[in-house]
Amino acid sequence: MSGFPALTSGHRPVGVVSFAQHDNVRRDGEHNDVEMLLPVIAEVFGNVGITKDDVGFICSGSTDYLVGGPFSFVGALDAVGVWPPRAESHVEMDGAWALYEAWVLLQEGEIDSALVYSFGRSSPGNLSEILALQLDPYYMAPLWPDPCSLAALQAQALIDTGRASEADFAAVAARARRSALGNPKAQLAYDRSPEELLREDYEVAPLRRHALPPLTDGCAAIVLAAGDRAYELCERPAFITGIDHRVETHALGARDLTRSASTTLAGQKAGVGKAGVDVAELHAPFAHQELILVDALGLADDVEVSPSGGALAANPIMSAGLIRIGEASTRIWSGLADRAVAHATSGPCLQQNLVCVLEGV
Amino acid sequence: MSEPVTMMAAPMRLDYVFTPGVAQGKNMHGLERGVFIGQRCPKCKKVYTLSRGSCPTDGVPTDEIVELSNTGTVTTYCVVNVPFAGQSIELPYICAQILLDGANLSFMGLIQEIPAGEIRMGLRVEAVWVPPDQLGPTMASVKYFRPNGEPDAAFETYKEYL
Predict the structure, then answer these.
(1) Quick check: helix, strand or coil at residue A220?
(2) Per-domain residue ranges for chain A?
């Protein structure tokens, strides 16, 4: 046993000890949500040699809007098997927020481990229309603005400040897709120069195709364990030393879209700047958003950003944030990093953000 | 000054492609042949019909396919007397939970060919299918269930399924 790191958030050390994710694909037309989750849940437990009967809490993240069926999260529990009855909860959000809820419960000390999972598919419906419904129902939603157009407004505003250019977006995309070549779960990976990417046509100006995330079906799961239990399950747990999430107004016109005030605040509360950061897994579905997030978190130039390729390599809706925490944790487990930052976002133009600091001992 | 806006209409409609998955796909292909398909859990050995591919108790895939009987038992029921929008069946009619022989999970079905006042728990029923040329991968292939003439099932045989 190697002891525990100092905590910025909470008082009980809770570590990420296992992570699994489904293959990220454009469309899985063969399996339903339960069938996609079954192998992922089996893997996340199998990695650490436990079963559903060994965890004290189950929390999931998903949204019924994606499949157009009510209570799909209840049906998804069939992939875990909740008998005898057990403590369970759900958030209508990315799984990163389900992880936050599980972390809060683990702080209370009644349980020592939890399963967190999330699932979502972009393929059953028209994602552009579905995501428009998360906007305010009076002024924005009736216009049905698609997420790419809203992101393009944000990107143009960023260009207008003079802090970034289209070439910078291309550089982010080129690096992310090149990193993704080393990620077997990546959906979109290639080795192309920023100059080549800049010759692509605009999808929505100023965003070219490379600056957009792929549409992805997928799911992911994580096991959390507290205190000594973390070391029983994992040689070098990725302890959550800081975690916080903040939300901004849904009135897009009332925000400075070129800054992410909620990320900055969450990062401060999570203690990002208290020590050096080796690696940061950022949930930036659009290339320019990575630039905004790096700025908001105050990450130094030597921080390795999204070595998995991030959401530009695979963007399984409702899981891409949880996967950032999982990917950052794998760097701690392997010793490639001692201190990692994972970030998850939700809502249009980085409206809501969660920041998690992970440390190994 | 004009009247303040107090109400607005914002019509919305979303269309989806339904993915039944492997398990429900097998069920639906069974319905296409006029056969109920069940899936057995390798751990608890229970047979689920209209399975989504997993045992909800054990959380493991239910890979073993079982062809189920055309007959079953009414475990509980409701007599519908209240008219509603979209109603297509003459009132009163009976909606019942039906436990197919060989299955460990009941599902809801329409009961016909029996006066509403005679419906009861334990009634033995059989499925009536649409004509073969109208069978499809849908529960609409089952027109309804009707009494099959067998004596009522003993309460002990279905008390675990209420």
Answers:
(1) strand
(2) 14-126+215-236, 135-214+240-359
For the stretch A220-241, pLDDT in tens is: 999 999 999 999 999 999 999 9
* pLDDT bucket at A178, cuts 50 / 70 / 90: very high
Residues 6+ apart with CB under 8 A from B44: B55, B57, B58
Distance CA A326, CA A320 (A): 10
Please check whether the two domains, A14-126+215-236 and A135-214+240-359, share a CATH topology.
yes
Determine how β-strand B64-67 pairs with β-strand B37-40: antiparallel
A28 reaches B (C-beta below 8 A): yes
Nearest residue of chain A to residue B57 (CA atoms): A81
- Best residue in B5, B7, B12, B19 to probe A by mutation, most A CBs within 10 Å? B19
- What's the whole-number mean pLDDT along residues A187-197? 98
Q: Which of A280, A296, A294, A26 is nearest to A169 (CA)?
A: A294
Cα A118 from Cα A66, distance rounded (Å): 13
Residues A14-126+215-236, CATH architecture: 3-Layer(aba) Sandwich (3.40)
Nearest to residue A356, comparing CAs of A322, A330, A317?
A322
pTM of the complete model: 0.95
CATH number of this structure's domain A135-214+240-359: 3.40.47.10
Closest C-alpha among A182, A170, A195, A200 to residue A286:
A170
pLDDT digits (tens, 9 = 90+) for A27-85: 999 999 999 999 999 999 999 999 999 999 999 999 999 998 888 899 999 999 999 99
Selected residue of B5, B8, B14, B28 to mutate for chain A interface (largest A Cβ count, 10 A): B14
Q: Least CB-CB distance to B17: which of A33, A124, A137?
A: A124
Q: What residues contact B151, with CB distance under 8 A and at least 6 apart?
A: B124
Question: How much is the average pLDDT of A181-189?
Answer: 98
Spell out which residues of chain B touch residue A75, defining contact as CB-CB under 8 Å.
52
Nearest to B21 among A35, A68, A83 (CB): A35
Omega within 30 of 0 (cis) for the link into B92: yes
Please, is A331 exposed, middle or buried when counting C-beta atoms within 10 Å of its C-beta (0-12, 13-18, 19+)? buried
A64: left (phi over 0), alpha (psi -120 to 50) or beta: alpha
Asked casually if ipTM beats, i.e. exceeds, 0.90, the reply is: no
A65: tokens are 């809007």
Whether A125 sits inside 8 A of B14 (CB atoms) is: yes
**Whether residue A1 has pLDDT greater than 80:** no
**A109 and chain B: CB distance < 8 Å anywhere?**
no
Nearest CB partner across the interface for B23, out of A28, A35, A81:
A35
Sign of torsion, CA B77 B82 B86 B87?
A: positive
